[in-house]
Amino acid sequence: MALLSIENLHLSIPSFEGEAQILNGVDLSVERGQICGLVGETGCGKSLTGLSVSKLVASPPARYRQGAIRFDGQDILGLSEGAMRALRGRRIGMIFQDPTTNLNPLFRIGEQMVDVALHSMGANRWSRSALSEARARAIAMLERVGIQDAHNRLDDYPHQFSGGMRQRVLIAMALIGRPDLLIADEPTTALDVSVQAQILQLLFDIVREDNIAVLLITHNLGVVARLCTHVAVMYAGRIIERGTMADVFNQPSHPYTRALLNAVPTQKTRKGTLQGLGGSVPDPYLPHPGCRFAPRCAIAEARCRDAVPSETDLGHAHAVACIKAGDPA
């Protein structure tokens, strides 16, 4: 059984312009030992999917119209805030995009990490033994993510760390509770290429050592190719293709997946040959009756605009939501 299973999830958020349909039937699963890359254009619903798993989307005003998010067999959408706090940091860890805004500049790194460690231990800061154990965990985790002289660096403030080191601190904070599931939302966006490679290798090693499940949210297909075992491609709030990284990248079956891959430069790409994807993502305030990619699809037919395509199983856990899935590219 999958550790994380998202089933037909629909999420809408009201605003002055109306009610935006953000997620439109998301189906996704992640097992232990898997790194599943959730990819797609900006605004397709990737981050809100990840935040929903930790139940960090304010509801209300956001509204889950239907669906379920099952973590270890339990539907977390029905859990109270207290029950979710018990899961966050202990069984579900999260790495956010920007370490600059997700580390409090007013507190030392050690204070922030010890707070997370105490929460995961179910202890309070008035216990000297608990504080000592929490500090020891923080030092051990900083060393594990490659921060040297961790004992002394606990007393440093976030601004005393480089961008790559701050990202390592966020990873350490997400893992200090020894979670079963790690949600990483664009964990390398603000880093240069050489530091990105180090962070990705660090994540890969930790997943293998601890046998945890990872949902990696990114728009970088190069990161997915380097790190992920599985891929889910999202468009307009719906998973339109999913499978192993090898199957999706080597045999893309949805026109949108092929368009994304064609837009990625490689060593063989020559000047003037890179293919862009025309058009723009659909307006979430104006639900489309058929396939939401149809207005931008070069092979769309009249029937594509009539009904939302159901998912077609291509075998080997490779599935695609396109009525022309069996047709040649």
Describe the protein in words:
The chain is of the alpha/beta class and 329 residues long. It contains eleven helices and twelve strands. The chain has helices at residues 46-53, 81-87, 99-102, 109-121, 128-144, 150-153, 163-175, 193-210, 221-227, 245-250, 255-262; strands at residues 4-15, 18-30, 35-39, 63-71, 74-75, 92-95, 181-185, 213-217, 230-235, 238-244, 312-315, 318-320. The strands form two sheets. Strands 6-7-8-3-9-10-12-11 form an eight-stranded mixed sheet, with helices on both faces. It has a four-stranded antiparallel sheet with strand order 2-1-4-5, covered by helices on one side. Helix 4 (109-121) packs parallel to helix 7 (163-175). The longest helix is centred in the middle third of the chain and has 18 residues, at 193-210.
Which key terms come to mind for this protein?
single chain, 329 residues, alpha/beta, 11 helices, 12 strands
Distance between the termini: 33 Å
Q: Class by helix and strand content?
A: alpha/beta
Number of strands: 12
Content of β-strand: 15-25%
How are the strands of the biggest sheet laid out side by side?
A: 6-7-8-3-9-10-12-11
Write down the secondary-structure element order.
EEEHEEHEHHHHHEHEHEEHHEE
Helix count equals 11
Q: Helical amount among residues, as a percent range?
A: 25-40%
Q: Detail the poorly predicted runs.
A: none
Shape: globular
| Rg, Cα atoms, Å | 21 Å
Largest sheet: 8 strands, mixed
> What's the pLDDT, averaged over the residues?
87
